[in-house]
Amino acid sequence: MKNKVLMGLAAIAMVAVLSSCGKKPQAEIDATNAAIAAAQAAEANVYVPAEFTALQDSMNAINAAVTAQESKLFKKFGPIKEQLAKTLTLANTTATNAAAKKEEVKKDAETLLNDIKAVIEENGKLITKAPRGKEGAAVIEQIKADMATVTTAVADAQASFDKGTYMDADTKIKAAKAKADGINAELKEAIAKVKGRR
Amino acid sequence: MSLIWKRILIVAAGALFVFLVFFFLIRFTPNPPVDEMAYARKALSKAATNKADTYSKKLYKEARGYYESAMTTWKIENERFLYFRDYSKVVKLAMQAARTANNAADSSALSSTSLKTTLSRKISGLNEVSDNLDKWFTAYPLSTETRNRIAKGKMLLEEAKIIYRNGKYIDADKKLTESEYLLSTSYEKASESLKSYFRSYPEWRRWAEKTITNSRDSGSYSIIVDKFSRKLFVYLNGSKKAEYSAELGRNWVGDKIHRGDKATPEGMYRITKKFDSRDTKYYKALLLDYPNDEDTAKFRAAIAKGILPRSAKIGGMIEIHGNGGKGVDWTEGCIALTDQEMDLLFRIARVGTPVTIVGSLQDLQHVMKR
Fold first, then answer.
1. Which of chain A's residues have a Cβ under 8 Å away from the Cβ of B327?
2. Taking CB atoms and an 8 Å limit, are B41 and A176 in contact across chains?
3. Which positions in chain A touch B248 (Cβ < 8 Å)?
4. Residue of A nearest to B80 (CA)
5. Is the C or the N end of chain B the one with fewer CB within 10 Å?
6. Which residue of A has its CA nearest to B329?
7. How do residues B19-70 score in pLDDT, each as one tens digit?
8. pLDDT given at position A134
9. pLDDT band at B122, cuts 50/70/90?
10. What pLDDT shows up at residue A186?
């Protein structure tokens, strides 16, 4: 009788040991989620959206794999831990890449802002030389209106830049730069024509 | 049976029991819906790649909702004892998530492609409007407000093009809508002003024909100024003999009404006096008989209707003079030629030579085609 009881206990203990040999890697999951949150805070969804989507896909797959293991009698979290380690690295890389891209866009916007300020200044000087274009005062009026719009766009872009929304600033400044360069070319051409006539 | 055999039998029975327990546990445990969930995830990922969160928001949100519900249900089922778990609801939700995500992906692809095509057309159309504004109205006196609207509209168009190239079609569409509003309304306003100006075309045509006929009948010189093309034509015996570039008053569109409006008058005039370089600061000048009776009548009517204040003056001293060639409409209402061309005109012009000033010698259709 004593032996039977011992046997039963051994079987139960065996089942208990086998069914709980894998423990959910909660610490690793938390660390990876924190790294993903950090990537999002670094605006990875804005500056490296494809990488960020891949990162989210990877984490979704891990969550599903964890739940799948929890459905099993014999849990095995080893491969998930490996996946978590990879995803953690990916999250860190994504955050780094986002920061790098953000810095790149920031520098680009900064350069363009400086460039355009120089072009605006030059345009201001060119317009006073009154080449005025073949078609007359109305052309000057339109150029002045264009110049005012460029100045407003630059102010908007600067505000976006100061707010840290560099992508938005970059787009605005690129459009303004194209316009300012166009005005510059138009004025220079008109001045050259007038000089040629003299 | 000896004791040892009894023990062996008990151990074997125990082992068999344990084996059977494990066998049943494994054999009859329901399978977790791993494949279905993976399929749903794949569909969601495809939808995300197709930017369904932007172009098919509702479906994508729905699909995500199904997926989240599937995950939650799966976790709840995992809490139950092994044998009592039922994943059929999870499977159903996962499949719903996959179907909806696939629909979102397709719909998004279709929407973004269709939006891309629409935007491409919209950009072409607005480029055309912008080009037409440049072509027809750059030299046309428009209000500062209209000029600013055109400038703003063009800037937004430029921004929209950059955003479009970056593949952000919804954002590009917003910019284009703003740009379209500004450019189209400005274009319509400017066109309306131009059309309204050209309503006087039949009268201009009549004046010009009369001037040419007079030149033919009298065998003398006549001058016609076409304001729109900024040309001064010299006729002799009804035939065009010379053509010079002219510069006008800054607000050259429309007839001159009062002093200081910087408009060049329209009408049939004659030269009343010739000034050589000693008598004018504009190299040489031919004074016209502005205002004539018609101009005076128009001015008085404007005062009577309250269009002009009682203190307004009709103006005068409208001349054809030198110092031109600036490439700009700069006069107070006179017609300026280069000094060389003024010399030529001064030689042939006499007191009494007719000078007809018209808005245009060509109708609006021809002007627009030019």
1. 131-134, 136, 190, 194
2. no
3. 136
4. A71
5. N
6. A136
7. 887 777 677 778 899 999 999 999 999 999 899 999 999 999 999 999 999 9
8. 42
9. very high
10. 83
Neighbours of B141 (CB within 10 A): 21
Q: Region B232-250: what's the mean pLDDT?
A: 93
Q: How far apart are CA A29 and CA B74, in angstroms?
A: 18
Please classify residue B133 by burial: count the beta carbons closer than 10 Å to its beta carbon, then call 0-12 exposed, 13-18 middle and 19+ buried.
Answer: buried
| Edge-to-edge strand list for the sheet holding B267-275 | B239-245, B231-236, B221-226, B354-358, B267-275, B285-288, B319-321, B335-336
Going by their DSSP bridges, the two strands B319-321 and B335-336 should be labelled as parallel
Chain A: residue whose CA lies nearest to B9: A4
Candidates B159, B174, B187, B230: best to mutate against A (most CBs of A within 10 A) is: B159
What pLDDT score was predicted for residue B20?
84
Q: What is the pLDDT of residue A4?
A: 58
A–B interface: beta-carbon pairs under 8 A = 136
pTM (predicted TM-score): 0.72
Nearest-Cα distance to chain B for A96, in Å, is 22
Residues of chain A neighbouring B11 (CB-CB closer than 8 A) = 7
ipTM score assigned to the predicted complex = 0.74
Rounded CA gap, A46 and A106, in Å?
A: 13
Q: Which two tokens stand for residue A29?
A: 């999951």
- In this structure, are residues A120 and A106 in contact, taking their beta carbons and an 8 Å threshold? no
Alpha carbon distance B144, B167 (integer Å): 35
Torsion of Cα atoms, B99 then B105 then B106 then B111, to 10°: 140
**B155–A136: do the CB atoms touch at under 8 Å?**
no
Confidence at residue A11, expressed as pLDDT on a 0 to 100 scale? 54
Say yes or no: A107 contacts chain B, CB-CB below 8 A: no
Phi, psi of B269 (to 5 degrees): -125, 175
Query: Would you say A122 and A184 are in contact if contact means Cβ atoms under 8 Å apart?
Result: yes
By CA distance, what is A134's nearest residue in B? Answer: B327
Q: Residues of chain A whose pLDDT is less than 50? A: 20, 133-135, 197-198
Q: Is the pLDDT of residue B154 over 70?
A: yes
Of A28-37, B14-23, B222-231, B329-338, the range with the lowest mean pLDDT is B14-23
Distance from CA of B58 to the nearest CA of A (A): 19
Mean pLDDT of B137-148: 83
Report d(CA B50, CA B67) in Å as an integer.
18
A contact residues 124-183, partner B, Cβ 8 Å cutoff: 130-142, 144-146, 148-150, 152-153, 171-172, 174-176, 178-179
B242 φ, ψ (degrees, to nearest 5): -150, 160
**Closest alpha carbon to B256 in B292, B205, B282, B309:** B292
Query: What is the DSSP code string of A29-57?
Result: HHHHHHHHHHHHHTTHHHHSHHHHHHHHH
With contact defined as beta carbons under 8 Å apart, do B346 and B253 qualify? Answer: no
Strand partners of residue B319: B287
